[in-house]
Amino acid sequence: MSRPIDFVIAGLGNSGQEYATTRHNAGYIFIDYLANAMALTQGEGAQMPPVFHRRYDLSADVRDTIFTFTYANGSSTVTNSLRIILMKPLTAMNESGSSVQKVMQYYAVKDSKKLIVVADDLNTQPGILMVQGGGELAAMRGHKGLENIVSVIGTDFVRFRLGIGRPAANSTPISQWVLSPFTKENREMDLFGYLLQLTTQALKDYSMNQDLKLIKKKFARPRKIPNKLTEMNSLIFPVDVHEA
């Protein structure tokens, strides 16, 4: 494609089937969910599941796609078209920065504000979205994937942080908690499913106005979670990975 990139959306996680539905893979899960949601919106049923290309040179699974959608603007309807790179780093979580940097360089994305990173957040309750942009390293300290990206490209990028909460006091070590799968207990999977939908809508709105303050106000905490949630029996959203 010749048109420039509008956004690079990177979901953080660990590659390998054993990590597929773990809390620390919230970013990976979201990217697969988003790829499916975008394809369905555009009526690409014949191309399902969405195709990613495994780019070993970029250390990432990558989907380069044009997303076209319409929205109401006052009394008129507006059609918008975006070229979006969806990516999942194939490095270890703690080395995500090198993959993100390679993808941005390959696609000639020089403005780090076009980078949106989606990751899990221990300090935010399940079902709650945190939205951040810029700021100091302290805003990302504790998440090794985000810290590594900062070490490579700085802090001037957008973060959508998906709440996974912390284990009950003294019940489970943090390292075990984040590498354990989401469960049905306490509606955890249902809350994460709700969060996938919420984050997708937040990203769509952000693509239209790029007003991070407005997105925080509309989608981030404090926010009341609906009493009725869609029941989630799986957090696997199929994608087709082609070796490049």
UniProtKB/TrEMBL annotation:
Q: What are the protein's UniProt keywords? A: Hydrolase, RNA-binding, tRNA-binding
The protein's matches in Pfam families, at most eight in alphabetical order, are given as:
Pept_tRNA_hydro
What does it catalyze?
an N-acyl-L-alpha-aminoacyl-tRNA + H2O = an N-acyl-L-amino acid + a tRNA + H(+)
Spell out the Gene3D superfamilies in the cross-references.
Answer: Peptidyl-tRNA hydrolase
Q: What InterPro entries does the record tag this protein with? A: Pept_tRNA_hydro, Pept_tRNA_hydro_CS, Pept_tRNA_hydro_sf
The record's family statement is:
Belongs to the PTH family.
Q: What protein am I looking at?
A: Peptidyl-tRNA hydrolase
